[in-house]
Amino acid sequence: MDGRAEPPAPGPAPRGRPITLALPKGRLLEEAAPLLAQAGLPAPDDPGRQLRVEKDGWVYLLVRPADVPTYVEYGAADLGLVGKDVLLEQEPAVAEVADLGFGACRLVVAVPEGSAITEIDELDFHSRVATKYPRIAAQFFEEQGLAVELITLKGSIELAPAMGLADAILDLTQTGRTLEANRLRVIAQVAESTARLIANPVRLRLREAELAPWLARIEAAARGGGEQP
Amino acid sequence: MSTEAPSFNRPRMPRGVRDLLPGELRELKALEERLLEVFSLWGYQPVRTPSYEFEEALLRAAPQDDLSGWHQRLFRFSDREGNGLALRPDMTTPIARLVAGRLRRAPLPLRLCYAENVFRYEEPQAGRSREFRQAGVELIGSPYPEADAEVVALASRLLEGLGLRNFRLEIGHVGFVQGVLEGLGLGPEMERLLRRTLQLRDYVAYQRLVTSAPLPDGLREGLLRLPSLRGGGEVLDRARELARTPQAQAALANLEEIWQLSRAHGVGAHVKLDLALVRDVSYYTGMVLEGLVEDVGYLLVTGGRYDDLVARFGRPLPATGFAVGLERLLLALERQGVWGLPPASGPLFITFDPARREEALAAAARLREGGCPVEVEVSRRDEVAQRGYARQRRVRLWARFLEGERGMVRVEPLDDEAGSRVKPVAEWVAEVLRAREEGVTAGGRAR
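Above: the input entities. Below: the structure tokens describing the complete assembly.
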């Protein structure tokens, strides 16, 4: 936090209790792996189907992205790596330590290309909006003074308008290609998201001496923007 | 919910509350007793207030700018006259009311303590229930750091005495963060945002706010370092460059005295400074306190100085105190393996044939008078059923008053003992009572 830049890799193995880091399975993890390696965290051997990998004083938990804050909040993990979109949706009691910059996406409201709707204000209480972010959506539409009907789905949100389930969707988009492929047009941006490093607030305070150098390294690696040292 | 497995109209439980079974309650009660014993060693006297009060009274603790937020967190209802009532969300507010009211003639300082249930209408999440038990102390009537240091020392000795390891009490000061932020001239809205990000420990947002704020460079760097002002006494020196307003300087001087005093109390090893500490409770006006331990991921102890709260009930009095969550504390102690009562010894079990019931009940009465827990048969079961019950209930002894054994009692073997023994009733009662007496003196207080 105080921005001390530590020399990158390899880091000293943490002494005593291992540091537990919850990682989101999937796209974000692929982007995170090189950065963590650059910060000097031991590279786990191919985890295969294992959900818990231990290596040189670190324990990596491989969990669903939406479960990362839960592991950290309850202290089952000391640290976690997760998209800001998940934090906005869950508002967990965790410390947000660093914006790692990668994994940039936007939360947007989109309608079918052929829809007559061009602005968010045109959605009314007849309008159904499909999303897997019910909390963000409720808050967003309330702030806009709009009373829409929210439909919560677990995935494949893009399908809902095509099948007449919803008039619009509120979803995450990275490049816009998925939206394009599903003939959806963005009418409003709700929030921006990047990968965040989070910590259990109690562990962050009690294990400060062990954690602080690592947090600084990870931040420094993130600031390096993937450049080789 | 499902119709597949009929549950015969079993009632559901509201979210965020739970039952405590005999084993759990025994642990929690024992812990609570220990806490109250320690409180009384420091001169604190227990008080109890009603579980619910007028909503208006409880809302006096709320900040003016977040009245609706506090309102939301109360369990509210009304009486038949339509008065708004609410369950108490903490004990500090009712005690402030008590001190301004019925206790207004009591000599100061007042040292009060409690162990009661409190109720908060919050989303149940990590370590949070909607009803939980809190124990705590309030030291009312002294504005001096000696009082804050006593509260910190008491919290520390309390946890130490319970055998808790690796815990830490972190102290900060509301006036420091406030004084530093006000000195920047960024306006109340920005100050509120910065305080909020510090409270949530959202360092990403904090850094962004500080980086984008119109500030001279030297000050900006100082402010970016604020969250790292944590540790021992050296932190106070590092904090001085940030303390540019009289309020911030006074807060720092106050904290330094509390810090020195807590060392004099001999609890320095457990106390650390955290100058960026911001508590969400608005009535704090001075030192704030949080207690943590690695084994549970949430706060164990919370507290601080609240010099304006009693005044909101009509009697200006400075005060300070802390509360500890009993369920959380028990969890931390159990995780560290430092808490464990000796297994509860079961009761004596007395059964009898109808012809001997007077004798059996009289023997049971004598045993209870001598402090022996006794259960007597009330279900008219046969021998096999009684034996099964005695095993399951883990009774200490099973004594049978049988029709064919006048004046005698048959003590049945349980588990590994050999065959049953038959003894004269009076002799047996005396023997059991003697054994209990010896057990008490040998093993301290038997619970």
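Note for the figure: The two ends of chain A are 21 Å apart (CA to CA).
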